[in-house]
Amino acid sequence: MSTQDEAKKAAGRRVIEEFVRDGMKLGLGSGTTSHFFVRELGKHVASGMKLTCTTTSRSTIDVARDVGIQITEPNEIGEIDLTIDGPDEIDRDFNMIKGGGACLLWEKIIAHASKRMITICDESKIVDRLGGFPLPVEVVQFAWKQTERMVRKTLADHGISGIRIERRMRDELPVVTDSGNFILDCHCGAIAEPGKLEIELNRIPGVVENGLFTRESDGMVVGKFDGSAYVE
Ligand code: 5RP
C-alpha cells in the first residue's frame, strides 16, 4: 500500500476514535479516503457498535454492504448526526472542491442533512487557495452546451481567465452521475471568492450543483504520510 493510502487510512481510523459514537446516525462519504474509513467502520460494527448509516453514492453503498454495514434510505434516516467525507482540495478555512468521483450532488445533500460534517483527507489535499483541481459542475443533459456557455461566462465574470471546460468522459463515453447528469470539469486556476462563485454557479439554469463546498465542513482529520493523523 502506498504512503498516501496509509495516510488516508490513518485519517479514517482517527475520525472514528474522535467523532463516531455508538447509536449515531451517520452519512458515509464517497471516494477512496471515505471507502478506507467505511471499511474500518465495518470492523467496529462487526464488534457490536450500533449505527444507522446512509451514503452519498451507489459506490459507497457497495463498499458498506461488503463490510456488513446496513444502509438506510436517505428518505428514511431523518436528521443525520454526522457526515464524514473526503475533499479533492481543502483550504485552512475548510472550503473545499469536491466531485472528483462525480458524487457532489448527493454529497452536498447529505452534508446539509447533517448536524455536523467532518472532512477526512491525506495531507496532499490541503491547499492555500482552491482551484488547482478542476472544479466539477453537474449539469442536466438537455442543452448542456448552452449551460456550459453560461458557466464559462460566470467564471469569466469572477475574474477567472484562460478557462478550459471539459465534459467528463470515461472510456470515450460521457460520465453520467448517479442522478443522470453530466459533469463539466472547469480548469480555473486560483478561485478568489469560492463562497460567492458557489452561489453564482448554482443560479444558472441547467446547473444542478457545483463542487464548491464552502459552508459544510466543521473540521478536518488529516492523515500524514508518516502514518499519523491530526484533527483541525
Ligand atoms: C467524490 C468526491 C470525493 O469525496 C473526492 O473526490 C475525494 O476522493 P478521494 O478520497 O478518492 O481522493 O468528492 O465526488
Automatic annotation (TrEMBL):
The active site is at residue 107. Substrate binds at residues 30-33, 85-88, 98-101, 125. InterPro entries: NagB/RpiA_transferase-like (IPR037171), Ribose5P_isomerase_typA_subgr (IPR020672), Ribose5P_isomerase_type_A (IPR004788). SUPFAM superfamilies: D-ribose-5-phosphate isomerase (RpiA), lid domain (SSF75445), NagB/RpiA/CoA transferase-like (SSF100950). It comes from Shinella lacus. Homodimer. Belongs to the ribose 5-phosphate isomerase family. The keyword Isomerase applies. This is Ribose-5-phosphate isomerase A. Coiled coil: none annotated. The keyword Isomerase applies. GO terms for molecular function: ribose-5-phosphate isomerase activity. Catalyzes the reversible conversion of ribose-5-phosphate to ribulose 5-phosphate.
